[in-house]
Structures are given as C-alpha cells and as structure tokens.
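Suppose you are handed a protein chain with no further information: no name, no annotation, nothing but its sequence. What can you learn? This example shows the usual starting point.
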Amino acid sequence: MIAEYDSWDATAMAEAVARGDVSAAELLVEALDRVVRRNPRLNAVVLVQEEKAREAIAKGLPEGPLRGVPFLLKDLGCEAVDFPGHNGSRLLANTRWPRNSAIFERIRSTGVVTFGRTTAPEGGIGAATEAAVYGGPTRNPWNLDHTPGGSSGGSGAAVAAGIVPAAHGSDGGGSVRIPASSCGLFGMKPTRARLPDGPDAGEGWGGMAIDGFLTHSVRDSAVLLDACSGADSGAPYWAPPLQEGFRAAIARPPRRLRIALCDTTLTGAPIHADCRAAVLDAARLLESLGHKVEPARPTADTSGMMAAWTKIVACGTALGIRKALAAKGRDLAPGDVEDLSLSAMDYAKTISGADYLDSVGKIHAYGREMAGFFDGGWDVLLTATLAEPPARVGRFTHKGADYVNYRMGEGMIFDYSPFCAAFNASGQPAVSLPLGMSAEGLPIGIHLAAPFGADEELMALSAEVEAAAPWSALRPVMAWN
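A reasonable first move is to predict its three-dimensional structure. Written in structure tokens, the prediction is:
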C-alpha cells in the first residue's frame, strides 16, 4: 500500500516519482491491486495489459510531465497497437489496430503508464455505461445502485474510486462532462478540433465528438490538454491556436467576467431542486470572487439542435456497424449489437443524404446562434451539468430501447442531460465542476461554457473556483476501502 496514493493527483504523483519517493513500477502495482480489490464492484476497468505496462517502464518512459503515473484509456476510440479494445460492442470485441492514433501518441508522450481500458456503452450512445460486452453495468462508486454516467462512465468510475488519478475519455454529447458530474470529478470538453482525430478519421459525429479526460484536479486536465492540443497532419480544420497553454493560463486568475445564470434547462424547463440549488450556490461563489452574475438564457433553437444531433448520431452508428461488418466480410448476426443500436440503424435508413446534410446545417446554425448569445456581452454561461442527480442503473438500458425515444422521449436522455450536447453542437468549450451534492449524497456537477476558442480563460476560471472551494477531498467512501 502506498499511503499517499489517494491524496495525490496525477501531477503530485509524477512529482513523487521525479523525487524518487516512489517508482513507476510501484505505482503500477498499487493501481493493479486496486483493480483487483475495487473493480469487481464497479465493472469499470477491462482489458488489462499488465505486461505491456511493465514493458513500457522497462524500456524507459518519456520524460513527460506525468512520468510514471498509472493511466487508463476509454474503450472507445484512442486506437493503440498495444491496447486492443471492444469499443463497447460484441461486434467489435478484441479489435486490434495496425497503428496508434495521434491522441494516444500524445498521451503517451506525457510519460503515463497505460495498463488497460475502461468501459463505454455501445456506440458511445447514452448517459449510462451498461454495455453487454462487459457482462453487466458499470456502477458509480458513490452509490452502486446509480450510474457513473456515460459514455466515459468507466473512466469516471475508475478515477472516482481511486484506481487511477486520471483517465482518458471522449465527449460527443456530454460523455466527459456527464461522468464528471456523476462521479464528483473535473471534466472539460475543449473547443471543436482542439485535439487530433487522426490518422484514421477527420472528425466524429459531424465534428461534435472530441477526446478529453476525467481528473480530480484542474491542473491535471491542463497538463494533459497541453500535451494533446493541436490538430494532426491533414486534419480538415483547426481550432484557434492556444495563446499560452492551459498550465500557463491557470497560473493566475482570469479577468473579472460577465456570467449568465440559467437555473432552468436551455428551453426554460425546471430542473431537480438539488441541481438548481447547486447552480445558485455556484452563482454566489462566483459573485464572491468578483464576477458579475446575472440571469440570462440563450434563445437558440435547442430542441431543433437535439433533433439534428439525433439524426447525425444515428447515421454515425449505422456507418460504424456497416464498416465493422465489411471488415469481417459478413452480414449482421443475432447478438452482434444491442437493441438500441439496431433501432438507430433502422432510423438511419429513413434519413436521406439531403436530410443528413440538413441536420449538419442545423448544427452549424445552432453554433452561430450560441455565438450570438456570447457576442451579446456574456463571457460564460452557468448551468447545471445534468438536470437531475445521477440516475439509477437500468434507467437508460439499451435493451428493448427505441433510439429516437431513448434520446428525445419524456424523461429520457435529453431531459436528463439537456445542457451538454448544446456545446458539442456549437463546438464551444465547456467544463463540469464538482461543486454540488444531492440530499442523497450523490455528486452534482456545475457546467460552465465559454465562447469558441476561449478554452484557456475557461480553464483559468475553473482553477480559480477550485482554489476558492477546494474539492480534492471529495472522494466516495468506497475509495478508501
């Protein structure tokens, strides 16, 4: 047992390695032991590659800012030769790749010791992680009856449970920020194209999907995003260049900002009382720091955006399944994919090429509408991350699910998560801060969004809030067992 393991963030852990207080090999043993002791209750860590991790240490780790820190990759994307994946699907189980993705190469350059993957729902669809390929749902370490969120739910659960201090995720409709909110962590979705998608893809879900990280501290996300930022060669488009980098940005507070407070959904519907209370508490905290906070809500067509998002993701799901079958040289067989994916494929058949392009156009129009809101004098939009505390396991099961209802039906995903996808559609940066707690003792995230390209200012604001209301000790009881 390494006594300090639970109190270190990834940055502090790397500093301990640099001082010689602990070795990368010792940290790997600790992380693997925690997988053995904690993961059976969570079902969050899969496809452990201990030999590859030990081999990387023996060869000599890169002299990066997180050298020696144990690390996990989401089992969706982040293709890596040494780390096969299921991609959340029985159809894609044990997929191997001939080359590394750009994002993996950049993560590896930080010096982390990758040793496995974390669970994700099939196709990355949904705000829960319950894929059949893993044999059961992934559970929230704060309360095993509840979901850690999705689609980076396994990463959220693994970090919250103290298995690793940071993990890879990705976000196409809230998939980093939803687990961050559900698990009491920090998570950022950067500006569109801030991170590389290549070399085997140019974009995901019409530009709405991007990689990210689940961390305890703002500075850990800053370190990882600094290492990974920048388009790869041949990318179809680039984000506005960073001015000085995330770590430099958090070294000092941001300017005093004008913050729009929205304590409803973006369409004006009420949210859970505990979530609303957390938003109002966050507003008071921001005011105490000298920021100007006033009620305001964008008038963008959020309902239309959600309908367009649903069409684009259905087509993306169908394309992914079709490509997997083509690679296998066969037709779809019973049990290959889950009911929700089958329903998404059926829905995609009703969408013409013109319909798809019209949906992309609506997403682009939504981005202009949201940009107009911020151009009206607002620097940040403050909301809850989710409209409710973390849902119970099984509420968002893929079994027997109708895809359109799953996304847009009453009480379903867009009712539960009405904020996050807006900023995948607009491409703007957004974060979830672990500032709230429900009456039942479940984490509630606070969502902050900023203008396109204003990632550094948003990260600096996040660091200022973290310093004013530290959350480093926010750990579930399970993590200490």
